[in-house]
Amino acid sequence: MIAGSGEAGDGPAPYRERTVRFGETGPDAMREKALFVLARLEERMSIFGTGWADTTATQAYTVYDPHPFWRTQLSNVARHGTA
């Protein structure tokens, strides 16, 4: 089990400065945020020598509409095992 990741990077900077496109919720911003989260999850899986192809289930949650980017980028993970 690998825990999810928010859209904020690491570091000492305030949350606002570390967050991918802080305060933006348009389709392009949401796609960029999702790609950031997927990359973070890939990093975490690689520590264990695994990747998307090794997953058996995922859960995604957001209060915003994921459909503008769901079919393009996120579904690539399920089909090809890579973001």
Count, helices: 3
Shape: flat
What portion of residues is helical? Answer: 40-55%
The fraction of residues assigned to DSSP E strands is under 5%
The biggest beta sheet reads:
none
- Oligomeric grouping of the chains: single chain
Average pLDDT across residues?
Answer: 81
Q: Tell me the structural class.
A: mainly alpha
Q: Provide the domain count.
A: 1
The rounded distance between the terminal residues' Cα atoms is 18 Å
User: How many strands appear in the DSSP assignment?
Assistant: 0
Low-confidence stretches: none
Q: How big is the Rg?
A: 13 Å
Order of helices and strands: HHH
Provide an overview of this structure.
Helix 2 (27-47) runs parallel beside helix 3 (67-80). By secondary structure, the chain is mostly helical. It has one domain (15-80). It contains three helices and no strands. It is 47% helix and 0% strand. The mean pLDDT is 81. The longest helix is centred in the middle third of the chain and has 21 residues, at 27-47.
